[in-house]
């Protein structure tokens, strides 16, 4: 009799927990997710999957002396690591010397979603509750971020019911097909920050640059503009600089909808030597590049469908009729 009562009590508790979770809206769950990642000590091992390629990733987070410290590392191939100390992000990449930026964020869709400006993002995406599932052995609430226009990818998020941490992200096209995935495989919640993370938090790092100091003349006026963009995208920065690889001048514009970043490059080339058109897609990232009849190369790179990137590139127009890009 007593055993039956205990089973009944456990069942009632599960029902109450389910009802409590169901009372939350999709937006409220996303708010919980964003708060959770900044307040807890944990380590999440993930696998990024795109076009049959798997990349193991580890994200470690701690609150040390009331301040956030996080470490993101790619575990295969050449060492690539990133360190966050409050609002300062240090990049350790094999292509150049380490540097620190203030007000940046870690790369990747998982990091973008846990730090996204939610009110702005919800202007162009609808949050929808989609039931429950299991990830890494944990019960998760599933939330869909459905783009209000069909020219962007959608997102499916799995949020752990206990910790409210983001365990899995699927990027899907308008037909619902999987484009790219970040899948959590192990979550280790800890009572205190890992000792090695404490050591990193106190280590000497490169001097901090503000984002606006990392680019020459970040708001420099360009002599062209975009006549079409998907809903929600806004210009974050624009400048004219030289490409490191070729030393050729290029106009650059960076755009974002709060989750996805896009880069647009416009430059003069020799139309006889340049490739007339390139269409490349790797997972969710598209690269579209073409050279027009007057020898101007336009390139768009970002996590949007290829047809969207192509339409953005084709929308580049001079500010005045017959005005050539310098």
Automatic annotation (TrEMBL):
Instruction: Provide the protein's localization.
Output: Periplasm
Q: Which InterPro entries match?
A: MucB/RseB_C, MucB/RseB_C_sf, MucB/RseB_N, MucB_RseB
Q: What is this protein called?
A: MucB/RseB C-terminal domain-containing protein
Against CDD domains, the record matches this protein to: RseB (cd16327)
The stretch of residues making up the signal peptide is 1-21
Q: PANTHER family from the entry? A: PTHR38782, SIGMA-E FACTOR REGULATORY PROTEIN RSEB
Going by the entry's taxonomy, the superkingdom of the source organism is recorded as Bacteria
Q: List the GO terms this entry assigns under cellular component, sorted alphabetically.
A: outer membrane-bounded periplasmic space
Asked if the keyword Signal belongs to this entry, the reply reads: yes
**Into which family does the record put it?**
Belongs to the RseB family.
Where does this protein come from, organism-wise? Aeromonas media
Recite the UniProt keywords alphabetically: Periplasm, Signal
Task: List GO BP terms, alphabetically.
Answer: regulation of polysaccharide biosynthetic process
Q: Which residues form the MucB/RseB N-terminal domain?
A: 25-204
Recall the GO molecular function terms of this protein's record: antisigma factor binding
Task: Tell me the ranges covered by the MucB/RseB C-terminal domain, including all copies.
Answer: 219-317
